[in-house]
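I hope you will forgive my troubling you with a question about protein structure. The record follows directly beneath this note:
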Amino acid sequence: MAIKRYTDGDRPRKFATNLLPMTSDPTQTLDPDLVLAQASALAAHLQRMGVQFLPAENPDRVGELMSHFASIEDGVDAQAASSVSPATSTVKPNDAKSAPTKPASSGPTPGPVSPASSSVQAPSRSVTAVTVAEGDYVGPRLEPAERGSILATLQAEVSGCTKCPILSSCRNQTVFGEGNPNARFVFFGEGPGADEDRTGRPFVGKAGQLLTKMISACTLSREETYILNTVKCRPPGNRNPELDEIANCRSYYQQQLSIIRPEYIVCLGAIAAQELLKSKLSVGRLRGKIHQYHTSKVLVTYHPAYLLRNPAAKKAAWDDLRLMLSDAGISV
């Protein structure tokens, strides 16, 4: 996008937007991340509408704003991929799971990701595939019969973890993960919610029901796959896990992946993708490519909770799964 500074003679008439709640109270300040996220979303919308020039009151800030265009909220990318008119975003970048949306008259119900798609769509902005931790996983490759018992031993260790004082004090139980210890496909999410904290199983709420349907659309069953999260305890109020909380859990999911050594890992949402791939890019920038984590191929798609709030993004998510299935030699 080209940005030009207009002179007083040709500056267009100002127009008002409702992107930010303005206040005359000098004690209140705006969140700079929120401002950048909203400005980026608006700029992307204007660019798609054919706008090529924007007035710049302060040219020194133009470069900084442009550098944030790559971190546009995932929802904008999803809507663009689905050919749906974009909606204004009011969330921080890379926070797809917790993005607020317009409330519906009734709660969202899980729906399958439609297999009726013509061709796999890559994101509009090209991104080089990411390779993390080249080479084989750490440690010896276990025999298939050994993996279940080793995972059970690790699960017992995790159940008594108190590395995070806040999480360990407010959880009902840890949510280790479940599935086939010899799985070819692993689904890697963010963290447990209320239903998961209550049952001790990953992805069992409404988002989990949608994930099960997504897996079924791939001609697979949950039992054939393995499902785990970045963190093993539910953050209070379903907030995003803090960086130190993710770091405290890192060795656990790394050991799980090293034991299973899946051929494919599907990262569900920005937090899982950014943690595994050590990237700050949004889901919209990372999807559409096959990345690498040790010997596992990694694909990135939208979190099922995000898809429940933004059904238009389901087609993009199905395209991501079809890319994986095509690479795996599975016809759907």
Observations:
- The chain has two domains: 32-81, 131-328.
